[in-house]
Amino acid sequence: MTKVWGPGVRMAAGAALAATVVALALPKVTGTSWRPIVDALSRPTPTQLAVLAVLWLLGLWAHTPSLTAALPGLSHRRALLLNLTGSFVSNLLPLGGAAGTVVNWRMARAWGFGSAAFGRWALVTNLADLVVKLLLPGVVLCWFAAAGSSATHNLTGPGVVGVALLAVLVATVVLVGRDDRAVRWAGGRLDRLAARLRPLPSAPEGWGERAARFRRESADLVRAGWGRMLGAKVLYALLQAVLLWACLSVVGAPATPVVVASAFVVERLLSMLVLTPGATGIVEVGMAGALTALGVPAAPAAAGVLLYRAFVIGMEVPVGGLGLLGWWLSRRRAGHLGAVARVHPTVRPGGRWAHAGRLPTEGAARWSTRVSAAPASPSAGSRSGA
C-alpha cells in the first residue's frame, strides 16, 4: 500500500499545484480572462486536431535516431517506447525524471541491455538534450539581431542565461571527457567513503577504474554517433516548434516565425524547472507571457500555449501509459508461458495451447499429478484403456 499511496499522493499534489498555477497566473500574466481563452480553444476542428496529432507523432519518431545511436542494438520502435514511457512517469510526478529513468532501465534490462550500457545511454542523451536546449537562445537572439527586431530586449535575459549555462556545460564535459584524471579522483574518494560506510556499494576493481572505463566507453559512443544524436535532437526541436506555430494558428493567434521561435526557447528553458510534473504551470505562464510581450493577442496566445502543451505533455500520459501497460502485460505473459513450459514440457510458448489461448489450469495440473502418482493396477489400466 505504501508503494501505491506514496506516488499517488505526490502525483495528486503535483497536479493540484500545476493546475492552481495555470488557473490563477495565466489570466493575470496575459491580461485576459478564462472566457475568451476557452472560446479560442473551441475553434480547432477535429480535422485540425488530427493533423496536430500526426505532427506530434512525427516529431517523436524523428527523435528516435538520437536514442538508438546512444544504445547500439536498440530498435526505433523500442526507442519510441522508451521515450513515451519515461515521459509518462516523469510527467506525472514532481521531479519525476529519476522515476522515469528507473522505468526505462527496467525495460532495457528486460531487452538484454546491461546496466552500464543503459547508464551511458541516459548520460549521453541527456547531455545532447541539454546542449540543444541551451543552444537555442543564442540562435534566436542572432535571428532577432539579423531581422532588426525591436523586441530583442525581451529575450536578452533568457538568451544570456542559456548561453552562459551552455558554456559551463561544455567546459565541464571537456574537462571530464579529455582524460581519466578527474573521474579517477572522484572514484578514489568514493572508494574511501564506501570503506567507511558499509551501506554504500563497493566496486571490486575500484570506483576509480570503473569510472575511467565508463568515461572511455562513453567517449567512444559519442565519437561514433554524435551526428545522429544532435541531428535528431535538432530535428525534433524544429518539429515541436512547427507544432507550436500550428497550435497558435488554429486558435487564431497569428505569429511570425521569429516570435514562435522565441516562445519555444522560453519553453525549452523553463522545462528544466521540474518543480511540478513536466514543469506544468511554470512553462505555460512563461510562454504565454512571452507571446503577449511580443505582440500576440492575449487570449489566443494563452489558448495556443495550452493546446500545444496538451500535446507535448498531456498526450504523452495516456499514450505512454498504454505503452507501459502493454510492455508489462507482454512480460507477464512471457513469464507465465515460460513457467508453464517448465512444468509441462509439452506446452511450449507459441505452441498449440498458446495459439489457441488455452493453457492447462491449475486444477487440471493437480489432477494429472495425482493420476501419474497413483499405483498401477490391472483394473486401473483396463479403465484407462476403456
How large, in whole angstroms, is the Cα Rg?
A: 27 Å
Helical coverage, percent range: over 70%
How large is the share of residues in beta strands? under 5%
With helices defined by DSSP (H or I, 4 residues minimum), what is the helix count? Answer: 16
Strand tally: 0
Low-confidence sequence ranges: 349-386
Distance between the termini: 54 Å
How can the largest sheet be summarized? none
Tally the structural domains: 1
The average pLDDT value, as a whole number, equals 78
Summarize the helix and strand pattern as letters.
HHHHHHHHHHHHHHHH
**C-alpha geometry:** globular
Q: Strand pairing plus helix content: what structural class?
A: mainly alpha
Question: What would you say this structure looks like, in words?
Answer:
With 386 residues, the chain is mainly α. The protein has one domain. Helices cover 79% and strands 0% of the residues. The protein contains 16 helices and no strands. Helix 9 crosses helix 12. The C terminus is likely disordered.
